[in-house]
Write a structure and sequence with these properties.
Layout (H helix, E strand, L loop, with lengths): L21 H15 L18 H19 L17 H15 L9 E4 L2 E4 H22 L8 H9 L9 H12 L20 H8 L7
Antiparallel strand pairs: 1-2
Helix pairs in contact: 1-3, 1-4, 1-5, 2-3, 2-4, 4-5, 5-7
Length: 219
Amino acid sequence: MGDDHHMITTNTPTSGHLDDPRSTFDRAITVAEGIIVAVHPDQLTDPTPCTEMDVRTLLAHLVGVLDRVAALGNDEDPFAVAETPVADDAWARTWTRSQRRTSDAWSDDTKLERTITLPWLEGTGADVLASYLAELTVHTWDLATATGQDPDWDETVVAAALAAPQILPGENRRELFAAIASASGLDEVPEPFAEVVEVPADAPAIDRLVAWYGRDPMS
């Protein structure tokens, strides 16, 4: 890796707002589904860029992301969602079930307007749903990278994830994870996102997104 890689802007994502992010979120789910169905059982114990998770644990976490989004849409506690591995041949079916729950939970337009308060964000339902685009997409990238897949990233999804209200601050992310642990009633929680990685200003949008979340797309 050349020295120039570490001399260029970190490209802080622009905070924005999607009036109705549901269709974009559905597109992000579709991208993830294509990668999930291509995972081979013999890859489930392989490491991932999210260093605390192997592929099986990452799959459970991705399902957990959808289940937390569904919980928020249903006015339930997202921190009560458990991330439980399923049978090796059941990940695609489990993903489809979680997708349906998420879609049903956010089917009422009024849920986009109500206020939701989380340790990392207070905003409308639309803001919160949009903010999850980034987590879903970054972990989809983790899974693709871990399993040797090179998908065609949905440009609309990645652009929306970059522009959405950010889950993470630019610095001192441990403070946020401590707040999440407190909200979850835990002594600590895993820290799935490291500090920002610098990438070139003209890097592909997916590289800029994952770099903001602590991944090095050039490694």
